[in-house]
């Protein structure tokens, strides 16, 4: 019997695979392990303790940064998801229009443009607005995050729309549903898993952004990641490990939920 | 009721343009079970989608009860569709599916629940009203799709190959069920199928389509017994085609000479020529075997195929090697005693054949 090419049977495959997984996950495992270190060091084990979690929890700067991060991520993912729903509808539920490919590329550009370029351009753009309006609040960060979160929210929503049976919407129209009613009663209820998945993805992406945030934030607007970056310049304690582990836990939870949500009701 | 006037539908443009319908005209009567029959790609589903309003015609117009439907979106047409895939709403229960149309029409809640239970009763699905659509069988989904489309009491019900996904036995059952529903509700049914048997057993009238045109419209009997052209004769049932010479025609009765030299009578429409070579179509069950030398044709038995309900006799005709197939119904314990290689004659009933339009 002729066998098709099977990569798992090539010489060295197992070694390379193991090496990849070790490189990917060993550092993370170490980071998580040392978050429970009783001592001051992030590389010398001195016994198990939860003291760094307690200290991180009690740290007012960390509390501030966490709340700010969550507010920005909530605001940004909400805006990005709404925009992504509209964009997905316009690129799947219309008769093909001129410039549709261009629009598609523009929606996805944040994935392609180097983040540092976006960051610098936003810094300049927002500083012009700041001079003009005098406003220096959190909205700059929310809007900047929303912008680069759109493609992440857009992808699962678009996939969901494309996977939907178009006959259902036609059946809705056939049964006297006006376009708005068909969207509300038929498209939207089935789109929810995609919208939730897109929203969560956007939330996670916003939560750990450093580059754009670092450039756009005003003084005293540290988010959790930029706060951590700032700490690294001083002395590093396992407190950083503890925060990272907490962030990791949240991301894993959300990504797992995302996975199940995009899988169900197929 | 529905008047389709010179309707043309072209998909695409320029080189890749495809003419799905070419100046089709047909009038479907009130309370009629009307079938569009044809092979895939003949335009039958396109015509259905034009009536529903999912597509707009490139040319011509469609009138419903004398009113032009042009420019009316699907949700303003008193026409409902049963989709081939059923297209039941997966996030709603059976009852919610059935009630969707009347809910969209803004009817009061009490009326909706009344109509829903009435419709579920009609399709014998009352006991499953609260099920999710994913929890019921294909046949049951079919019934729900029917109830959903009938609930708003449309003037016309469009059915797009609704039975094609069902297995044989269930299909037979649903054929009868559809006939019953049509007579009980009095709604005009426009039924699309590629299955000739389905078309013949269920329809009041059938339109046979191919290549975007209607080839013939008539009752199932007219279509079967008197196909107007070769495509129709070939598509519906089995047919023997014989070359013959037209000797003369009086009204619909034609006199012809077969290749064997024998003269026969056959039906011919007024449109056929009264002289020259024509094609004669003869159904396998409209001919009979005869001893050698009798009948209008002679030949050698080539094959005898037993089908249970009937037996097919394949005869190689003398002079030319054309094949002629006869079908005889089997009786209990009957053996007609024919064997392969036997010399036989073929007898035709009076006006058993139909002269085809070229």
Automatic annotation (TrEMBL), chain A:
Keyword Transmembrane helix: yes
UniProt membrane topology term: Multi-pass membrane protein
Main location as per UniProt: membrane
Residue ranges constituting the ABC transmembrane type-1 domain according to the UniProt record: 66-261
GO biological process: transmembrane transport
A GO CC annotation given for this chain: plasma membrane
Ranges that cross the membrane: 12-36, 67-90, 111-132, 138-157, 191-207, 240-261
Localization, UniProt: Cell inner membrane; Cell membrane
Key words, A-Z: Cell inner membrane, Cell membrane, Membrane, Transmembrane, Transmembrane helix, Transport
Database matches in Pfam families: BPD_transp_1
UniProt similarity note: Belongs to the binding-protein-dependent transport system permease family. CysTW subfamily.
Official protein name in the record: Spermidine/putrescine transport system permease protein PotC
Species of the source: Allosediminivita pacifica
UniProtKB/TrEMBL annotation, chain B:
Record's catalysed reaction(s): ATP + H2O + polyamine-[polyamine-binding protein]Side 1 = ADP + phosphate + polyamineSide 2 + [polyamine-binding protein]Side 1
Entry GO CC: ATP-binding cassette (ABC) transporter complex
GO MF entries: ABC-type putrescine transporter activity; ATP binding; ATP hydrolysis activity
Keyword set, alphabetical order: ATP-binding, Cell membrane, Membrane, Nucleotide-binding, Translocase, Transport
Highest taxon of the lineage: Bacteria
SUPFAM superfamilies xrefs: MOP-like, P-loop containing nucleoside triphosphate hydrolases
Functional description taken from the UniProt entry: Part of the ABC transporter complex PotABCD involved in spermidine/putrescine import. Responsible for energy coupling to the transport system.
Quaternary structure note: The complex is composed of two ATP-binding proteins (PotA), two transmembrane proteins (PotB and PotC) and a solute-binding protein (PotD).
Name used for this protein in its record: Spermidine/putrescine import ATP-binding protein PotA
Record organism: Allosediminivita pacifica
């Amino acid at each position: 019997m002729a066998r098709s090419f099977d990569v798992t049977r090539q010489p060295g495959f197992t070694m390379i695979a193991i090496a990849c997984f070790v490189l990917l996950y060993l550092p993370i495992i170490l980071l998580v392990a040392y978050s429970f270190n009783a001592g001051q060091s992030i590389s010398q084990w001195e016994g198990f303790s939860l003291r760094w979690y307690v200290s991180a929890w009690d740290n007012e700067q960390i509390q501030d940064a966490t709340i700010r991060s969550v507010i920005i991520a909530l605001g940004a993912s909400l805006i990005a998801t709404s925009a992504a729903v509209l964009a997905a509808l316009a690129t799947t539920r219309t008769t093909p229009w001129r410039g549709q490919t261009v629009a598609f590329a523009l929606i996805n550009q944040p994935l392609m443009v180097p983040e540092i370029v976006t960051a610098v351009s936003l810094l300049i753009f927002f500083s012009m607005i700041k001079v003009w309006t005098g406003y220096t609040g959190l909205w700059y960060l929310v809007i900047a995050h929303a912008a680069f979160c759109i493609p992440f929210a857009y992808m699962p929503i678009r996939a969901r729309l494309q996977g939907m049976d178009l006959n259902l919407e036609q059946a809705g129209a056939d049964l006297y549903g006006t376009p708005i009613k068909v969207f509300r009663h038929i498209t939207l209820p089935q789109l929810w898993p995609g919208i939730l998945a897109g929203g969560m993805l956007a939330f996670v992406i916003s939560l750990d952004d450093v580059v754009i945030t670092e450039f756009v934030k005003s003084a005293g607007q540290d988010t959790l990641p930029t706060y951590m970056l700032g700490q690294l310049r001083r002395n590093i304690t396992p407190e950083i490990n503890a925060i990272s582990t907490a962030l990791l836990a949240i991301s894993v939870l959300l990504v797992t939920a995302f996975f199940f949500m995009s899988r169900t009701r197929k | 009721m529905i008047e389709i006037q010179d309707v043309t539908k072209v998909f695409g443009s320029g080189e890749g343009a495809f003419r799905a319908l070419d100046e089709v005209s047909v009038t479907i009567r009130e309370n009629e079970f009307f079938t569009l029959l044809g092979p895939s790609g003949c335009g039958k589903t396109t015509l259905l989608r034009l009536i529903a309003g999912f597509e707009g015609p490139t040319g011509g117009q469609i009138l419903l009860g004398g009113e032009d439907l042009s420019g009316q979106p699907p949700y303003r047409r008193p026409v409902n569709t049963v989709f081939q895939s059923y297209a039941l709403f997966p996030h709603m229960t059976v009852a919610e599916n059935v009630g969707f149309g009347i809910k969209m029409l803004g009817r009061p809640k009490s009326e909706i629940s009344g109509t829903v239970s009435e419709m579920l009763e009609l399709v014998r699905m009352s006991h499953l009203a609260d099920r999710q659509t994913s929890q019921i069988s294909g046949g049951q989904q079919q019934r729900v799709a029917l109830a959903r489309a009938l609930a708003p009491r449309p003037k016309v019900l469009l059915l797009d190959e609704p039975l094609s996904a069902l297995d044989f036995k269930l299909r037979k059952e649903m054929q009868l069920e559809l006939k019953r529903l049509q007579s009980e509700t009095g709604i005009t049914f426009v039924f699309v199928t590629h299955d000739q048997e389905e078309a013949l057993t269920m329809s009041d009238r059938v339109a046979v389509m191919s290549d975007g045109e209607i080839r013939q419209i008539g009752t199932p009997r007219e279509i079967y017994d008197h196909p107007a052209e070769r495509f129709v004769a070939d598509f519906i049932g089995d047919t023997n085609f014989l070359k013959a010479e037209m000797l003369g025609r009086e009204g619909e009765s034609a006199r012809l000479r077969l290749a064997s030299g024998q003269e026969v009578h056959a039906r011919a429409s007024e449109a056929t020529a009264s002289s020259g070579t024509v094609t004669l179509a003869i159904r396998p069950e409209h001919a009979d075997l005869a001893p050698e030398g009798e009948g209008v044709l002679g030949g050698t038995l080539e094959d005898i195929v037993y089908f249970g309900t009937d037996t097919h006799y394949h005869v190689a005709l003398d002079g030319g090697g054309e094949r002629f197939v006869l079908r005889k119904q089997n009786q209990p314990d009957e053996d007609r005693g024919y064997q392969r290689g036997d010399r036989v004659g073929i007898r035709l009933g009076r006006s058993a054949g139909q002269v085809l339009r070229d």
